[in-house]
Input
Amino acid sequence: MSLAIQTAGLAKTYGGRPPVEALKPLTLEVAAGETFGLLGPNGAGKTTLVKLLLGLAHPTAGSATLFGAPIEDADARRPVGFLPEGHRFPPFLTGRDALDLFARMSGLEGAGRDARARELLALVRLEAAADRRVGTYSKGMLQRLGIAQALMHRPRLVFLDEPTDGVDPVGRREIRILIEQLRDDGVTLFLNSHLLSEVERVCTRVAILKDGRMVRDGTVDDLTRQGRAWTVTSTPLPAETRIALEDAVGETTERPDGLERYVVTMPDRVALNAALDALRSSGVEVEAVEPVRQSLEDLFVEVVTHDES
Output
């Protein structure tokens, strides 16, 4: 597996009385092409981790690499794009001028700058506003322009810090579609966000930081699954079938269309499929089977409020 980010005991302590352990030793891997979400309450160490990886702060202990290159090496950041939280553009610049400015700082040549700017303005749907001053842009437009500047030099890894912060639902959807496009193009995305519903929709894996340490790490699917329970929708269960599955079938809800909805708890998928076969053998028609999940938001609140591991 090719890794975009790898840390080994990476830590940061800020001097003071007493010293502040902003990030406790962290070991983390983010695969190339992955869409990774970093979660945590304020003060959890998220910003510190991003600063360390981008060379904006220096670690107290441990090490990290970006595509195998040590973060101490300036060349490690060449394939990296960054959208910081609360970024600002000079309001008197047009959108096209702003991208040209960042292209110059990325070392792109003249003809390449113009072509890349046109390409990105189309990608983030700002072609019609390309020659308007940035000071007239909405928050959603500014966020999309910010993503465009982060992509000017065709990075393989992009850090997005609160990419949908303060953006209305339409703007959030546009940014989500853009993130999905980048993911499909093989770009590795590292999202830092408090909008957990957005993270849940676009990220393949997340980590949760609390008090400077990682308390959860895994795929969204694995982290949000609640035990081995499934919600089943089917035609009504015969009395004898319900009795046979008494310990496995939870409370039943009758739907207006005559179907029933109930939770089946089984030790594994093999047992679940055996139970479904038994239902079908008794004449029950199964319409849907869905794993019972909690939302990422519910998991997050549970972890940061109660988890002490």
The chain has a mean pLDDT of 88.
